[in-house]
Hints:
Blueprint: H1 6-20, H2 22-34, H3 52-69, E1 73-75, E2 85-89, H4 98-111, E3 117-121, H5 129-138, E4 140-142, H6 145-152, E5 157-160, H7 164-168, H8 185-192, E6 197-203, E7 210-213, H9 216-221, H10 224-228, E8 235-238, E9 242-245, E10 258-261, H11 277-300
Parallel strand pairs: 1-10, 2-5, 2-6, 3-4, 3-5
Antiparallel strand pairs: 6-10, 7-8, 8-9
Helix pairs in contact: 1-2, 1-5, 3-4
Amino acid sequence: MSRLTTSQVLTLVNALATYSVFPLSIYRYGRILTGKNNIDPQVGYNPQLRDGEFAYNLSEFSLPILEKYFRVEYRGIENIKKGRALYVGNHNGGLQPVDSVITAGKMIKVLGRDVPVHALMHDYIFKEPSFINLVEKIGGLKASHKAAEKAFDMDSSVLVYPGGDIDTFKPWGKRDEIITGKRKGFIRLVLKNRIPLIPVASCGAHEVWYVLSSGTKLAAALKLKKILRTETFPVVAALPWGITSGFFPYIPAPSKIVIEFSKPIYWNQYFDLWEDDDVVEKCHARFSTTMNNLIQKLHSERKYPVIG
């Protein structure tokens, strides 16, 4: 097994401390909210900063721990292939999206050290230096067409969760579906760049906590979309706090997670029509149907929440 260097361990620990050391979390998130961190505007748009050796070593270190804790089961591994493609998943777990980490780690392990894999992430990640130092080295990019297309220029596979906050903070009763709202830019990205789309369905990761409310009305009242680029202010039940804000760090329950990489969807006939709203809507409808069928199939196999 590959070992992380001392420098790599320190980078990882520093980022984790922002999540898990409460006084430090308050201080660092406070700086994000008040805009006191002076961040280079080009941060998050540099796929060449990815360190393949670091990404692979980190995956080799962390995956066995996560796979054991969440009893992870993979399906469709044969659909993870080298080359330009957009892997699109349903988002779970809030600020600790364990299935996203597991999915990216598995892709890295399957494809190897020298094959680029990148993931599109929320802007707030790139407003905190401890996060930036980690995610840029493992392939994290700002969720934007500009960043994704730079990665495609490197022949990279790119992972994205287009539902973002509205999907990851969806109420418990909607955990068996993907919610993307009006966000269809990922479809245009696929068509414009003439690449396949691989649906990645995850089941169980939304049971690591209990989302009571997504808090969309409160978020709108507080104008959080302008401040933090989020349409939610979630209220959740999570360990060890009980009922709390979904923006607080928490301990994920050991829910069994199943991740299925589906067969690629090819829209070759629409590649030249990526600006056509009707075509984009049609492709989005097919994707949503495919994803919801996959997620609901996985949920139908579960006997009990968390236990699986």
